[in-house]
Specification:
This protein is of the alpha+beta class. The chain is about 55% helix and about 20% strand. Helix 4 (about 110-120) packs antiparallel against helix 5 (about 155-165). Strands 1, 2, 3, 4 and 5 form a five-stranded antiparallel β-sheet that branches. It has helices at about 1-10, 30-80, 80-100, 110-120, 155-165, and strands at about 125-130, 135, 140-150, 170-180, 185-200.
């Protein structure tokens, strides 16, 4: 009897005439349908509110894991080659100190100019002038430019340039001009030279 009443209610149930105020008298299938629909809605909301946040957190953790893996690989490689790095740093430190020792201090620049004059005279040249120019400051060093004016023969000038290159102090030569003089085939050479001073870094 009850089954027949249920079937009759289902048969006569019209979704267009649903009255939510009378849900208690709805047929059982309609109640089950509404219950299932509510479960789906609640599950969907839970997924988007909770589970989607967890997915976002998981993506962040995965990205962090990749970063940590790369950091670990880098650190592991550096640790494995630490002795080689230390040896390389020691070698670089020795090279730097060696180069630094070849740079003149403020007090040594006048003596360096005297040495250049001596190289010129040893090469058979006449030193007309050695003129200092304003210093130029860079990030790690101070450039000390000066100009040299000499008279002499072509081969003497070659010996002079070679003598400067062999000096213990670092001197670079730039922008030379050679002209013929009227006196007995002599040449005049004007050349720009530079030496460098190490700039002490502020800590």
């Amino acid at each position: 009897m009850a089954m027949n009443e249920t079937l009759e209610q289902i048969k006569n149930f019209d979704p267009n005439n649903v009255d939510f105020d009378k849900m208690g008298v709805w047929p059982l299938p309609a109640k089950i349908f509404v219950l299932v629909l509510l479960v789906i809605i609640i599950f969907s909301l839970t997924y988007y509110v909770k589970i989607s946040d967890l997915h976002d957190e998981l993506d962040v953790v995965k990205a962090k894991e990749q970063t940590l893996r790369k950091t670990y690989e880098t650190k592991s490689f550096e640790a494995a080659n630490l002795d080689a790095y230390r040896a390389q740093m020691d070698e670089m430190d020795k090279t730097f100190k060696s180069l630094l020792s070849r740079l003149p201090s403020d007090a040594q620049v006048p003596g360096l100019l005297d040495d250049i004059g001596a190289r010129g005279r040893e090469s058979g040249l006449t030193i007309n002038a050695t003129t200092m120019e304003p210093e130029k400051s860079a990030e790690f060093y101070i450039e000390v430019p000066f100009k040299i004016n000499v008279d002499g023969g072509y081969h003497d000038m070659g010996g002079f340039v070679s003598g400067i290159a062999a000096m213990p102090r670092i001197v670079t030569l730039h922008d030379y001009t050679i002209t013929r003089k009227k006196d007995a085939g002599l040449l005049n050479m004007q050349i720009s030279a530079k030496t460098y001073k190490y700039k002490t870094q502020e800590k």
